[in-house]
TrEMBL record, chain A:
Stated name of the protein: S8 family serine peptidase
Species the sequence originates in: Saccharothrix xinjiangensis
Coiled-coil ranges per UniProt: none
Lineage: Bacteria, Bacillati, Actinomycetota, Actinomycetes, Pseudonocardiales
Key words, A-Z: Hydrolase, Protease, Serine protease
Active site: D137, H169, S342
Family, similarity comment: Belongs to the peptidase S8 family.
Lineage: superkingdom: Bacteria
UniProtKB/TrEMBL annotation, chain B:
The protein's name in its UniProt record: Ketohydroxyglutarate aldolase
Organism per entry: Saccharothrix xinjiangensis
Length: 392, 81
């Protein structure tokens, strides 16, 4: 008898009968072991089944039988000898393959966030040293302990508000792009941990801004020689909406000056079911548009997708359950876990800074290297573009 | 009575970048109150009188050296953040 390995048997046995010898097999089981099995060919009643020692599945040539240890031994001997009984096995308990509960962060985040690990930042020798990285957002909590000693240049484009981040979003994005690898407490969370930080406040403490303020921020970053400009902001657009000619031209001019503009694709999708287009200004062809994936490399439910001929998702970054710096202590230190394509974007910006440092790449070459080195995900390109950004 | 103004963003065409001050001056002549001139990007921001999508915006578009005129939209954090 071939005995299944492991546990989980029912106490019954499966008897495989030789092809085209099912009737002979039934007689043989009766002869060698005294087992009387009903056959599906005879359309047995419930009473027949209760009286029988088992049931033969005629079309399969398999019998399922109750057998004593002595009968099992007799059947096994018959299986080893020539004849219509070929195999005897203990019947196993089987169950449906269930999808494992989506356990959050199967990744160990004791040393580095899952995001740093997913993009391979923790394995790269590049640090972003000497590269200027602009984050245009709600500002920056300059006093944050994790950034003391770093080069930080700031400018506010919001009337009546200093660069100080009373919202938290900007501080979180700067943390993912350029925060530390060894903070005082908790996991390392910054991709380009030695990049020079240019924090431009183009969104108010309430989270609002305008085209003119954002263009002002881009202009400032370009004038300061920032190789990377990260923009976790946008406005939703309806399908078919043309992209902004002005932002497109600004992005190409920034590119020609060596500044790559990277922007969040937007959070308007409600997957499964609803996929909404990449927002403004990420929908401009010359602005690199970033979608979000989770720890399982699945597209985030909110992540905008490629809906129109122009306005594509170019690549994706970690954007769910992202741990980074925050502007105030809400009970877990000056850190917070949040989600959004806004969180994916600074991961990509940080990687861009690493590539800029390692290869000296700027502008279109930097875009090409980002796209070329993405990890392919086996998901629709309309959702993830070239895939998950990877450190050099 | 002062007319309501609306904010606009103007991009300057490549052939207008060589003499950006001349384009800015022409924009002022066309009724634009200029807030900022971004030389690296070739962008001029400001406002024009009257409600949006009226003649003032079209007048700016007709200025030599101007590539595009767009209404200055509100942009913010993506929803849910």
């Amino acid at each position: 008898m071939s005995q299944p390995t492991g546990t989980g048997t029912t106490g019954r046995y499966l008897v495989l009968l030789e092809d085209r010898s099912v009737a002979a097999g039934a007689m043989e089981m009766s002869r060698v072991a005294g087992i009387s099995a009903a056959s599906t060919a005879d359309r047995p009643t419930a009473a027949d089944l209760t009286a029988a020692d088992g049931l033969i599945f005629q079309d399969l040539g398999v019998a399922v039988v109750d057998a004593t240890p002595e009968q099992v031994a007799q059947l096994s001997r018959a299986a080893e000898a020539p004849g219509p009984i070929s195999v005897v096995e203990a019947e196993r308990v089987v169950q449906a393959y269930t999808t494992a509960e989506e356990t959050a962060a199967a990744v160990d985040e004791a040393v580095f966030t899952w995001g740093l690990q997913a993009v391979g930042a923790n394995l790269s020798t590049a640090t972003g040293k000497g590269v200027r990285l602009a984050v245009l957002d709600t500002g920056f909590a300059i006093a944050h302990a994790d950034f003391q000693g770093r080069t930080v240049v700031t400018q506010s484009f919001i009337k009546g508000e200093t660069v100080d981040d009373a919202h938290g979003h900007g501080t979180h994005c700067i943390g993912s792009a350029a925060g530390p690898r060894k903070p005082a407490a908790g996991p390392g969370y910054g991709v380009a941990h030695e990049a020079e930080i240019y924090a431009g406040k183009v969104l108010s403490n309430a989270g609002f801004g305008s085209d003119s303020g954002i263009l002002g921020g881009i202009e400032w970053a370009v004038a300061n020689g920032c190789a990377v400009i990260s923009m976790s902001l946008g406005a939703a657009v309806r399908p078919g909406t043309p992209y902004s000619q002005i932002f497109e031209q600004a992005a190409t001019r920034a590119m020609s000056r060596g500044s790559l503009v990277i922007a969040a694709a937007g959070n308007e999708s409600r997957r499964p079911g609803t996929v909404n287009p990449v927002g403004h200004p990420a929908n401009c062809p010359s602005i690199l548009s970033v979608g979000a994936v989770d720890v399982n490399r699945a597209v985030a439910p909110f992540s905008c997708g490629t809906v129109d001929a122009i306005g594509q998702v170019d690549l994706v970054g970690p954007g769910v359950d992202v741990y980074s710096s925050w502007n105030k202590d809400d009970g877990a230190g000056m850190y917070k876990r949040i989600q959004g394509t806004s969180m994916a974007t600074p991961h990509v910006a940080g990687i861009a800074a690493l590539i800029a440092e390692k290869h000296g790449a700027r502008g279109w070459e930097l875009w090409a290297r980002l796209a070329q080195s993405c990890r392919r995900l086996g998901l629709p390109s309309t959702d993830v573009g070239g895939g998950l950004v990877q450190a050099p | 009575m002062a007319l309501a103004r609306h904010k606009v963003v103007v991009s300057v065409a490549d052939d207008g970048l060589a003499d950006l001050p001349a384009v800015v001056s022409a924009l002022r002549d066309a009724g634009m109150e200029v807030d900022d001139v971004m030389e690296s990007l070739g962008v001029v921001t400001g406002s024009v009188p009257g409600p949006a999508a009226t003649g003032a915006t079209g007048a700016l578009g007709a200025v030599p050296g101007v590539a595009s005129v767009e209404v200055d939209r509100e942009v913010g954090l993506p929803p849910g953040e």
